[in-house]
Amino acid sequence: MKTIAIVGCGRIARAAHFPALTQIEGLRIKYACDLIESKAAEMKEKYPDKVENVITDYQVALADPEVEVVYVLTPNYAHYTVTMDALRAGKHVFCEKPITVNYKLSCEMAEEANKRGLMLNIGVCNRYHKSVEMLEQLNREGKFGKIYHVYCSFRSFRSIPGLGGAFTNKEQSGGGVLIDWGVHFLDLILYILGGAKLKTLTCDAYCEMAKDMKSYKYTKMWAEDTKDIENGVNNVDDYISGHIRTDKASISFNGAWAQNINQKDMFIDFMGDKGGARLTYGGKFEFYDGSTLETIAPEYDIPDMYLCEDRAFLEAIESGVKNRNHIDNILESAKLLDSLYASADAKKEIEF
To answer: Is the dihedral of CA 66, 77, 252, 217 positive or negative?
Structure first.
């Protein structure tokens, strides 16, 4: 029986991890914690047989010797502090993506976990998406031949989340569309490529669509309950574009929370000399065989990637074996995000 505490009962907790964790046998959720007590209480009300206690101070859970594992599902800016406190209290940690707001602090988190012999996994959930697993296997099997370039698009129409709130405050979020959406796309690309290492990159970032927040028009807004158009801040990227060279392949990308083109383009193209594939983000892929000119659309079920991710984390604690979502295997993605922002700020190419 594993005893866990969940710190942060917001959107990702409610939509993904509570539904997943409450399905896992032999798991005891001793604490649901949130600064807004009603959010934690809602989880206890929804899962009365699984959630035992509601608290607002996570230190209560850290002081409890029965708690072995802490899930850090807070906003980005709190990832570092809560995770470091949990590690110093001797707890294994699952921390949602991004690791934290910058690469330096991410490395400190990895160092602390490894120094203490504790498991620290990061919630880059797409590494457990069935389509991503299949594409990674196809690459290992040589079906693509040499993947020489990957292109990805994560673009939508006027969908800046929580405008003026934590999502658009760089100090709290670490960035905009790149750190929110791009982290998933670029991380799964590095994973499918087989742990690609960075060589050079260049990036341009724009904050154009809501410079005047009061005049910004939208049809819908994710996390609208967190917006603060009257008094808040919007200083993060709503559009991002860049080119990356790695030791495996080059990567180019365009991302937009908001654009004046009413299209939603969420896909990744893998271009190999023997075959290629287009992955619809969150869905399935088609493989294009260069030798037969066939288009192959595999039929398969897609299990809940959050459930797969959470099970794998708990199994890793038992086995002591670092899996694909261990922080050591995610640091290159964190370095990539930080370096892309640095390139955009300096308006120059960065070499590694």
So the answer is: positive
Beta-sheet strands, E only, within 136-281: 147-155, 198-206, 239-246, 250-256, 265-272, 275-280
- Supply the pLDDT for residue 95: 98
Dist. CA 171–CA 194, nearest whole Å = 32
Give burial (CB, 10 Å; 0-12/13-18/19+) of 184: buried
Q: What is the pLDDT of residue 1?
A: 85
In 3D space, the residue among 274, 273, 255, 288 whose CA is nearest the CA of residue 177 turns out to be: 255
Interaxial angle between packed helices 331-346 and 103-116, expressed in degrees from 0 to 180 and rounded to the nearest 10: 160
Question: Cα–Cα distance between 6 and 3 in angstroms, integer?
Answer: 10
Q: How far apart are CA 333 and CA 188, in angstroms?
A: 9
Which parts of the chain sit beneath pLDDT 50?
A: none
Which tokens belong to 241? 């574009």
Q: How far is Cα 310 from Cα 128, in angstroms, rounded to an integer?
A: 10
- Which value, to the nearest 10 degrees, does the dihedral of the CA atoms of residues 322, 323, 327, 333 take? 140
Torsion of CA 196, 197, 203, 205, to 10 degrees: 70
- Give the integer Cα–Cα distance in Å for 99 and 141: 30
Cα–Cα distance measured from residue 136 to residue 338, given in angstroms and rounded to the nearest whole number: 25
97-155 tens-digit pLDDT: 999 999 999 999 999 999 999 999 999 999 999 999 999 999 999 999 999 999 999 99
Question: pLDDT tens across 279-295, in order?
Answer: 999 999 999 999 999 99
Omega prior to 98 cis, within 30 of 0: yes
Task: Measure the N-to-C terminal CA separation of the chain; round to a whole number of Å.
Answer: 45
Taking each continuous run of H as one helix and of E as one strand, the counts in the chain are 12, 15
Angle (CA) 1-118-327 rounded to 5° is 115
For the chain, where are the E strands, in sequence order? 2-7, 27-33, 51-55, 69-72, 92-96, 120-123, 147-155, 198-206, 239-246, 250-256, 265-272, 275-280, 285-289, 295-296, 350-351
